[in-house]
Amino acid sequence: MTVGRSTRCLATLITLPAALAAQPARYSFDDAQAFLKGHCQICHQGTVPAGGFDIHQIDSPSTIRSEAARWNTLALRVRNGEMPPKGAPVPPAGQREQFTNWVTLSIREATCAGAMPSPARIRRLNRDEYAATIRDLLDIQVDLSSSLPADGAGGEGFDNAGETLFLSPLLSEKYMKAAKFAMDVAAKEYKSREKILVARPGNGVSPEQAAREILKAFLPRAFRRPVTQEDIAEYLTLFRAARKQSQEFEPAILFTLQTVLVSPRFLFLAEPPNFSGDLRRIDPYSLASRMSYFLLGSMPDELLVDIAAAGKLHEPYRACCAASRHWSLRNASSISGCASGSSIPTRRPTQSCSLRGLPMRSSAPTYGCSPPSSSTRSSSAISRS
To answer: Fewest beta carbons within 10 Å, which of 229, 251, 310, 327?
Structure first.
């Protein structure tokens, strides 16, 4: 019996190396790259890759974290047989399964190993926020909320829950009508006209130059963050199209501004995505919007934007100043909750703050307390967006 057991053990030891050698090696990043190069590279490379996707965008292991959404989409399309496209050689089912399983497992492991950036937050302004933003942007005393349907409350009972604030075709039509009505009102009110039409053609200024200056002033306020020359050029194209239809300068520029009020960048609170794969601070303009819509239910005012532009809004005592000031404005306004239509317990802070040391307009209010010591100035508002 002992001899038999020894014989079996010896046989196992002899056959074990062969059995181990026969087992497939663990699927690796290099294997995934070989799969992509063999079946995807012909279409997804060069200056104009198919679908705007170049496989070189995911050619390093770090992209498992930084481009997790892209890897997920790619694996889903391979699993569903959408890639490679019809007419192209199709890899065996076993290879597709190995690739998609590896992608799923790798992303899961990266997620469990440490924090990964979540998708950038985005939600539509609810109807009260939209009406308040139009009011403050155009400086008109008109309530547009009655022209829009009521927003459904989320699971917690608040009407600023992003999962309920979708945009249907019918609601899009109502937004277009509301935008036209708002611009018609603004065109008739002197104070609003002076705020919007900051330039006019004449005295060596061409209509297009005047339109550019108006857009340069209006777009950053409407979009709640700085804009690029490309953004301005996009709306100048609309202005030119309106002029080609024989519209005078003012109707053409008002039509152009009307389109701004139905832009996704106006209707939605969106924050720049994080492609780095690492945690980072929320950008100051997004923080300004979060603060303003949380406390006032409307767009950031000029002072709050100034603080954000100076890069000071992340400093706790600066944020305290801005929040204290917004509480004061809130108490003087008709807005009664951080989620319009909902009631939450609120309390006014007792500490006043100082905003000195920032580039502010002379009309800006000031508050009287000294900033805390440097040891208490800790970073705040970390975003995974």
So the answer is: 229
What region, left, alpha or beta, does residue 282 occupy, with left being phi > 0 and alpha being psi -120 to 50 degrees? Answer: beta
- Tens-of-pLDDT digits for all 385 residues of the chain? 455 555 544 444 454 445 434 445 688 888 888 888 888 877 887 777 777 788 888 888 888 877 888 888 888 888 888 887 777 778 888 888 999 999 889 888 877 776 556 666 788 998 889 999 999 999 999 989 888 888 776 656 666 766 677 788 888 899 999 999 999 999 999 999 999 999 999 999 999 999 999 999 999 999 999 999 999 999 999 999 999 999 999 999 999 999 999 999 999 998 887 766 667 788 999 999 999 998 888 999 998 999 999 998 888 878 888 777 777 776 555 444 443 444 333 333 333 344 434 433 333 333 333 444 444 333 333 333 3
Assess if residue 3 is contained within a domain: no
Co-location of 334 and 371 in the same domain = yes
Whether residue 210 contacts residue 199, with contact meaning beta carbons closer than 8 Å, is answered with: yes
Range of the domain at 157: 122-269
Place of tokens 């030119």: 240
On whether the CB atoms of residues 284 and 304 are closer than 8 A, the answer is no
Does 291 map to a domain? yes
Across the strands, what pairs with 270? 122
Q: Are residues 296 and 367 in the same domain?
A: yes
Establish if 5 belongs to a structural domain: no
Are 333 and 296 a contacting pair, CB within 8 Å? yes
Of 181, 215, 195, the closest CA to residue 136 belongs to: 195
**Close Cβ partners of 99 (under 8 Å, ≥ 6 residues apart):** 27, 31, 32, 35, 75, 78
Indicate whether 288 and 217 sit together in one domain.
no
Interatomic CA distance for residues 290 and 133, integer angstroms? 14
Separation CA 335–CA 343 (nearest Å): 11
Total number of domains in the chain: 3
